[in-house]
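Page 42, continued from yesterday. The earlier attempt failed because a stray header line got pasted into the input along with the sequence. Redoing it now with the clean sequence only.
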Amino acid sequence: MDNLQARRAVREELARGYRVFGALGWGDLGDGHISARDPERPDCLWMLRYGATFPEATAGDTVLIDPDGEIARGAGRVNRPGFHIHQPILAARPDIASAAHTHTQWGTPFSAEARILEPITQEACIFFEDCALFDDEEVQVQSLEAGSRIAQSLGRNASIVLRNHGLLATGVSVAAAVARFVLMERAAEAHLKTPAGRPITADAARFAKADLTGEDHLRTTFEFLARHYGVY
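This time it went through. C-alpha cells are written below.
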C-alpha cells in the first residue's frame, strides 16, 4: 500500500469511527473528537472538521492538521480543544496512531469521582494497570500546555480518566482507539451501577486482560460495533 492509499484508508476508518460514535448517540452537542496520525507526515493528525456531525461524517469531512494547528489538507475549521488534547498525546507517543474522546452518559459522571477503573467486570479488566488519572481541574482544555499535562499523566497507559471531564482512549489504529473507548464507557457504567462492586484479584485481572487487549481483538470489537449499527 503506497502513502496515498494508506492515507485514504486512515481517513475512511476515521470517518467510520466518528459514525460509530454518532450511532451510539455521542457528539450530539458537537463535543468530542477522534484523531488519526497521518502515515506520510507522522507529526500531523487527521480530525473531523469542526461543525461536521458524527453520524454523517465522511472521509471528505476530515482535515489534516499540522503541529501548529493549521490545516495542511482539506477544508474547514479546526476543533481547537480537540487539537490541544490530541496533538501533545500523539507527539509524546509514537507507538500510538489514534486517540478518542467524547462526553458520554456514564464516562463523564464517572470522571467526576476522580478515580481509575477497577477490574469489577470482564470489560473492566482491559484497563487493569493500563488506566491513568488526569487529576486536574482544567476541564476546558484551551492550550497545548494543558494537553501536554494530559499526555504526561497518560504516560505509557492506553487510557486515561480526565477528572470532571470524561474518558480518553488510545490505540495503534482508529479501530483500536474507538473500540477501547466504547469498552471503557461500558466499564464506567458498571462502576456507577454497582458502587459496591468487588474487584477480582490482580492475577485474575491480568489473565483476562491478556486475552482481551490485542489489536486483533480490538479491531474485531470495532467491526462488531460497526456492523451492529449499520456503519459501513
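Notes: Strands lie at 33-37, 45-48, 62-65, 71-73, 98-102, 131-134, 159-162, 166-171.
Reminder to self: strip header lines before submitting.
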